[in-house]
Amino acid sequence: MQALAGYADLRDSACRRLATPALFVSGAGTRLIYQNVHFTFHQLTQAAGLRPRSPACRPRIHDLRHTFAVATLARWYADGGDVTARLPLLSTWLGHTDPAGTYWYLTGTPS
Fold first, then answer.
1. Which one, of 64, 56, 57, 65, lies nearest residue 101 by Cα?
2. Does 53 have pLDDT greater than 80?
């Protein structure tokens, strides 16, 4: 949260007129374009030495989202908290309009 708040402060000071309510924005203050984000992610995975195991098994930016969701749920189960009560929070973080769309992550890992 501190890193995101720091980014938001830096973004707001660098771009006085945001053209979008999105958290992450371009240098012009507009919403990021998916193709540009995908291209940059691909360049970063290449620079990090990550290579596809096959055309169907390659680093994907969506995997970061999936890992975040599953790790959050696993941590909530491990700490003994009420996962059902917390699920709307995870839904909000993921940008889901309804927690029903988040329940899929409960089955997204063997554990």
1. 65
2. yes
